[in-house]
Model the fold of this input.
Amino acid sequence: MIWNAIKSSLLSSLPESEFGLWIKPLECREQSEQSIELVGPDRYFCAWVEDRYIDLMKGAAGKMGMTPEIKVLAAEAPVVSRTSTSREQLRLPGVSVNQSRYRSLHPAFTFDQFMVGESNVLAQSACSALATGDRTYGNCLFMNSTTGLGKSHLTQAVVHEVLNSAPATRMQYLTAQQFTADMVKNLRSNSMEQFSKKYINSCDLLLVEDVHTLVGKNKTQEELNTILDYLIKSGRRVILTSAVAPNKLKGLDEDFRSRMTSGLVTDIVCPDYDTRTRIIQHKLHGSNLQLDEELVDYLARKLKGDIRRVESTILGIKAKSSLRRQAPDMDMLKEIMSGFVCQTEEMSAAGIRDLVSEQFKVSTDDLRSRSRKRAITYPRQIAMYLTRKFTKDSLADIGGMYNRDHSTVLYAVKVITRDMARQQATKEQVDMLCSKLEH
Done:
């Protein structure tokens, strides 16, 4: 069969993990010498396969002297009949039909694809336990971190695990913005009773991402607070994520804040060097790339913070290496990183903080401390000013980096702006830091 021959060819040319993740799940619905129709789990999965693997499939078919048109379609939701012999959890009498709702899932956001290190081990362990119903860490988890450190990966890993091991679990997985939109829609249609029932009576596991966006939305906070109160007290599982630590979220109802943090609260910080090295090696393996230890070390030292930068860099290495038909070397890595990754890193809040820390000979812990010494407050204010100038981070996000609220950031920006106009030394110092960030 044509498809089996193509799969055999891909199995020999792709890493086993990559083949298992992206090719093995595909099912062949129809095939002939003129066309092959494949079915994947969802639209995202199919789009990824079309973008990355269609050319490889056509190349494999070409070696057999055929040029079929290959289509990859998303599977329709299966309709399970009463007589079906497929795997299905039995429903207890009186339990409503599963009305789960969840966002589109990234097929690679699973537990076995998550790199565990000191920076995230508690969050990973708690998510893994909750996914299997283990209450070792309680039944409520609040995770917070800056962008790109794995919050969404872990929440989606929970969803993947539940769908695989207990598919009849009544689950709601959505963002705080989606929750708000759903609530507003039901308010307008006078159907809030149905809205509450969906989240209270028909939910075994609730996952809400980006709860920091609820700041100032009092009605949404009130509704979600009521839901959390019932779910947590009745032993249901709850996972919440935020880009800001709960004690830094200004504009939240205190009862709501208390309810959200009634279980385990953990942050995910930037991975250390060893974890970054393992992440890079894992991503390289998935892209069928090999780099010398010296090059991996260089990437691990330069690529801090947001893991998406690692993926972006490796994509650049693979593209440039393929285009030039040469093995990656240090010059190529420096060229790629100076072109787009390095600049992104330096323009991140963490990169600016590290630069200021190095320039003023103060530790990042000092910058986050409650110290009011001039030797600490001055570089802290400059770091806040530069972060506001070079990033799109909100005042609250910037404040969170330094254990402060948004009003402190606003004050720091005003102070440094004033001092630059009045004091030449301050202006020269800030200009020098700006120059380093820009280059």
Notes: Residues 282-337 form one domain.
